[in-house]
Design goal:
The complex is a heterodimer of chains A (427) and B (121).
Chain A lengths: L8 H11 L7 H6 L4 E5 L5 H11 L4 E6 L3 E3 L4 H5 L9 E3 L1 H5 L3 E4 L2 E5 L4 E4 L4 E3 L2 E4 L3 E3 L23 H12 L5 E6 L9 H16 L4 E6 L7 H11 L4 E4 L7 E5 L4 E4 L3 E3 L2 E4 L3 E3 L1 H6 L8 E2 L13 E3 L4 E2 L7 H19 L9 E10 L2 E12 L2 E4 L5 E2 L6 H23 L1
Parallel strand pairs in A: 1-2, 1-9, 2-5, 9-20, 11-12, 11-17, 12-13, 19-21
Antiparallel strand pairs in A: 3-4, 6-7, 7-8, 10-18, 14-15, 15-16, 22-23, 23-24, 23-25
Chain B lengths: L16 E2 L6 H9 L18 H4 L21 H13 L7 H5 L4 H12 L4
Helix pairs in contact in B: 3-5
Classes of the chains: A alpha/beta (427), B mainly alpha (121).
């Protein structure tokens, strides 16, 4: 760690007054007389958005995007792939357009970050020196957190919490399952990626079962006592899939304490459940490079200054998206995209030695309970007391008493959002 | 997709770098030397006021994106301001905009409306 402290708006003003704005200009660029360089690690909804937005705001800044996969596979809408309502190819996006926009795309893994020398090392041996680094690695699944659940177990009991081969595996297992089987979903405690995700997944699997395997059941074993949009989901389950979905919360013994992939069983404090198909969503933490860069704390997630997204632990490194501790904002693609654009504006200001503006953020998470039945939760956020907090009086869930045309319209808007955001980021 | 290019001697010689112009490897070598590569392709844009860039998650700023969310690009700022005021007061029916509009002040709404309004449809 250097002697510098992360720059928030207050310390920025203090330091500007004390040492003059010129001293705040980043050293690597000054020394070389080259363009300022911002490196973004992670090409998902957070990182890819940020790289592109920064290049758009400030074409003279050199922007590098580091991502190890050639093709991005979107988690939003992947539950529809599991239920046979979409193909995986509809979830896939390449980086060509981002490269054409002037962002340097490096298809390699970031293997090391030196916060003192401002150097990122890539798996292909190249080294990138940054003025500002944006870390947006998303999540890593914790293979040490649930006894019996490791990478080999995930081949039998898919998590499907990183979209791709796992999504298709779960879809194949459902399709091969005999009618009358029990599908078990193990949902993790907070915080985790996409809080309504397990329940949207349960809904769309029930949609599939009702039509193709109507004697089957779905059991959700949950490590918490409440979940996102709970009443909306539960009301819709009663209406659309009566008797099919059972949810067992933490205090009713829902927390899965171990799994046995050979026997296809999941064990809680009170019971052992046999599954025909088991979807185990394990506990998570920020992507590995966050630990390597020293921006993750003991929780496994990354504390940030809510005004600048700069790491509390390492100056000149910003963290956005699922990896960040973003206060009241959920770990969603919408939130990641909104944070990324605000972060791009902040970084652009800091590079020219100006005070960043206080961000104002929105999240809207749609879930599909059926293809024509959408529900949502929304929130508006701003920094207060060192956190991103919800603006009081705004946000909330869809009305509990809404009509079916209202639910249809929300399903329609959900698809519209997906189309818009993926076009903005990858199109 | 064009991968497996290698430009020796550059700090950025990622072996699997996607390049913007797959047709010309010579041009690629030149382009890498230009620190402001890409500048000619896109002019700097007007900075969005607080909140505006989050709106564009649903209300696309690119007019070519077809979406069920009403297009705001190029719309008269007064119309956007009036719509948000009506969402906030509950006078105008909404699915989600009533919940979102309540999170913004009059001044914030005005700035966002003008930012969208000045864009070319």
């Amino acid at each position: 760690m250097t002697a510098d402290q992360p720059t928030n708006r207050r310390t920025f003003l203090k330091r500007s007054a004390a040492i003059g704005a010129v001293a705040l200009l980043p050293r690597p660029a000054l020394a070389q007389g080259a363009a300022q360089h911002v490196v973004v690690i992670g090409g998902g909804f957070a990182g890819a958005t940020c790289a592109r937005a920064l290049k758009r705001l400030s074409p003279k800044v050199r922007v590098s995007l580091v991502e190890q996969r050639q093709i991005f596979v979107s988690c939003p809408f992947s539950n529809a792939v599991i239920a046979g309502l979409r193909t995986l190819s509809q979830q896939q996006f390449g980086y060509e357009k981002i490269a054409q926009s002037g962002v340097e795309v490096h298809l390699a893994a970031a293997t090391a970050v030196n916060p003192e020398t401002h150097v990122v090392t890539l798996s292909d041996g190249s080294r990138l020196t940054y003025d500002r680094l944006v870390v947006a690695p998303g999540i890593d699944l914790r293979w040490d957190a649930l006894p019996g659940y490791d990478q080999a177990a995930a081949e039998h009991m898919p998590h499907a919490w990183e979209a791709g081969a796992q999504t298709e595996l779960l879809a194949r297992q459902l399709s091969a399952m005999p009618d009358g089987g029990t599908v078990v979903i193990a949902a993790p405690a907070n915080p985790f990626r996409c809080p309504p995700g397990p329940y949207e997944r349960a809904s769309l699997i029930a949609y599939y079962l009702k039509r193709k395997k109507p004697k089957s059941k779905l059991l959700i074993l949950d490590a918490k006592d409440a979940f996102s949009k709970q009443r909306l989901f539960e009301n819709a389950w009663k209406e659309l899939y009566p008797g099919m979905i059972e949810w067992v919360g933490l205090s009713a013994g829902g927390k899965v304490t171990s799994v046995d992939p050979a026997a296809m069983t999941l064990t809680t404090d009170f019971d052992t459940h046999k599954a025909a198909v088991a979807n185990v969503i394990p506990p998570q933490r920020a992507g590995r490079i966050a630990q390597i860069a020293g921006v993750a704390d003991h929780t496994g997630w990354c504390p940030i200054d809510p005004e600048t997204f700069e790491s509390i632990l390492q100056p000149h490194i910003h963290v956005i998206g699922d990896a960040a501790i973003a206060g009241a904002m959920p770990k969603s693609a919408f939130a990641a995209n909104a944070q990324a654009k605000a972060c791009a504006q902040t970084v652009e200001k800091l590079l020219v030695g100006e005070e960043p503006r206080e961000p104002k953020l929105i999240n809207t998470c749609y879930s599909l309970v059926a293809p024509d039945y959408g529900i949502s939760i929304a929130g508006v956020y701003h920094p207060a007391g060192g956190q991103l907090v919800e603006v009081a009086g705004a946000g909330g869930i869809s009305p509990l008493d809404a009509t079916r045309p209202f639910r249809e319209q929300e399903a329609h808007y959900a698809e519209g959002w997906f189309k818009t955001i993926t076009a903005e980021v990858f199109g | 997709m064009n991968t497996d290019k290698n430009v020796p001697g550059s700090e950025t010689d990622g072996r699997r770098r996607i390049l913007a112009h797959p047709c010309s490897s010579l041009f690629i070598g030149v382009a890498l030397c230009l620190t402001s590569f890409g500048a000619a392709q896109s002019a700097a844009v007007t900075e969005p006021p607080p909140g505006a860039s989050a709106c564009s998650g649903c209300h696309a700023t690119d007019p070519s994106v077809a979406t069920p969310a009403p297009r705001l690009v190029g719309r008269k700022p007064d119309e956007i301001v009036a719509a948000l005021a009506a969402f906030r007061s509950g006078q105008r029916p909404a699915t989600v905009m009533d919940r979102i509009a309540k999170g913004f002040t009059d001044a914030e709404i005005r700035a966002i409306a003008e930012w969208y309004g000045e864009k070319q449809p």
